[in-house]
Amino acid sequence: MESKTMVWLQVQSAGLLATLALQFLVIVTPDTGLSGMVPERRDSVDIVKKESHPVLFRQKRDWLWNTISVTEEREDLIPYKIGQLRSDRKVAVRNFAIEGEGVNQTFIVDNKGNLYVKERLDREKKALYHLTARMYDGNGLLIEDAGEFAIEVNDINDNCPVFEEEYKGSVMERTKDTVVQVKATDADDPNTDNGQVRYTLPSGRTSGLFEINYETGVISSKVSNLDRETKSQYMVVVRAQDMKGRESGCIATTSVAITITDTNDNIASFTKRKYEISVPENLEVNEMIAVLELIDLDEDENKQPIFSIPSGNGNVFSTKSSKDNDCILVLKQALDYETQNNYTFTVRVDERLQFSPAENLNVTIKVTDVDEPPVFTRSVYNFSVPEEQMEKPILGRIQARDPDGIRKRIEYSILETGLPFRIDPTSGQLSVLRRLDREVEEQHMFKVKAQEENGGLASFAEVFVTVLDVNDNPPELTANDIFVCENDVRNTVIGILGALDKDNQAASFTFSLALPSSNFSIRDHGMIVILIVMRKHYQKDSLASMKNSGEIHEQLVTYDEEGGGEMDTNGYDVSILTSACNDSSLLRHPDRRSYPSMYAMVQKPHHLSQPTACKGDMAAMIDMKKDEADHDRDGFPYDTLHIYGYEGPESLAGSLSSLDSSSSGSNLDYDFLNDWGPRFKALAELYGVDGADYYHQY
Description:
- This protein has 698 residues and is mainly beta.
- Among the domains are: 67-154, Cadherins (Immunoglobulin-like), CATH 2.60.40; 162-261, Cadherins (Immunoglobulin-like, Sandwich); 269-368, Cadherins (Immunoglobulin-like, Sandwich); 375-468, Immunoglobulin-like (Sandwich); 476-533, no CATH class.
- The chain is 4% helix and 35% strand.
- It is elongated, with a radius of gyration of 68 Å.
- It is a single-pass type I membrane protein.
- It is found in: Cell junction, Adherens junction; Cell membrane.
- GO terms for molecular function: beta-catenin binding; cadherin binding; calcium ion binding; protein phosphatase binding.
């Protein structure tokens, strides 16, 4: 066999780098298997390299390379010759030396330039070796400088494909789809047929169900009729062969587990064709009656049954799915054995499949009798009766029945005691025992019990009795504080009267004076009446006439000792008091300004309402003191009321009572007492003040 190979050689010597392209004719020696490489001689080639000194021209080197390649895994005796180093230099004695990868361990050279391999070569371990050759004369002088060359190890098909993992795949039933991709590796040269793998499925049971891509190793389902319920898993053998699948190639196999996944492709059906179920009549609405089991070969997550009751009994019974997708039969409407004790209907199951027919199931429900408590004709009874009726009226009748077929006797009673009502225990007739007063209680509520005879089952109903109003209450007069002052003029309004009626009826009132009077009159304005003074009529009593009178208060203190009078000028000068009263000097201060009276300066509580009518100073003061005592939580209560007589406005001296004084001080200037002589000196020192403290503002 002959072929041509291009070999690039790089030779470096004397500072010059030359690249030689040599075309060799490869000659295979049959007896040795060695390939001799004889370079073709070309015309002279100039090699030029830029240097800092003048350019040198030199002929190409005289190396003649013999062998540069060898096949791996040769079975020749070791060492064996693979080539020879030659040069066309005419030298009597030559010595060769090599350096590089594998020298002395894998490759050696003798004095004639013969290259030998000392060990078996494996391309999968190392495919290329780089070496350098030198030639010396007999004196050890370098004749040919280093020449680089490569020894290439040629590949043979000494490795089989390998599956490096286990493969598992899955595909949904009744579909044609990709299952899994397998891959085998080959250590041989992938650029040769030795390392190129092809995949096949051996003929067998699964060959008609699955297929594999010849080059990529992708396995897919070949048919669309795979049924998980028939067979849920397949084991498929995959064969990988190198040499592009030729018979001379090496073969490896692996098994792939293929699982068929489920889809909803099976029709659900009931485990029974007919159900007969007994249900007590007192079963609660929305309670479960029974579970109707299904058979469905699909997985639970793919079961999608749809239940229905196509007949008219769908308003009494209903269906729903359980967690296992079975049918739950539910009571939708209350049962009554006495009304209907047997039901027969059909339960239908469908699935969302194009080819699935619906399946029907016959169900018979037998209602069993249960002892039930009495049933009232109404849950709430309402009656009404007028108030204050003397006779015992009958309000009405409360009725209950036994829903069972036995029809037991019913006995009635009122749960609460002490009520003004009675019920007949046999007939249920309700009546009033005594008079009812709407103003005391407008509505009565109680419960009536209906019980089967001999202490059987019982039930209860609420009863409301409304008491109707009649006009049985007189009006009640209402009025605010009414008073009249002695100086009120004619036609003064002294009060407003009103009237209330406890009865729940619209009423109009007429007002009049019980006794004729020439001093007062009443004017009727609908509901409102105004009391007016017709004429001024009063009698003034002096305080002197009340002296020694026990009618005023039992603790009235009377002082009989009198002073010297106005004529007693030895003690004090009355004219000073007179002038002080006339020009208000007693209330004057160092700024000589006139201030209001002490009582007028007292701060009144804001909650006090001043009467519109005129009152005397004493009456106003007593009202204010009384009100302060009523609203003072910290003060002591007034057990007694002390009345002090005092001189009225006719007296020039005014009142000497201490009622207008304050425990915390006074707003009067007592410095004038120093001007009244030595007899008032002690009093002036006692009540005198210093600086700005002489005045206290209320």
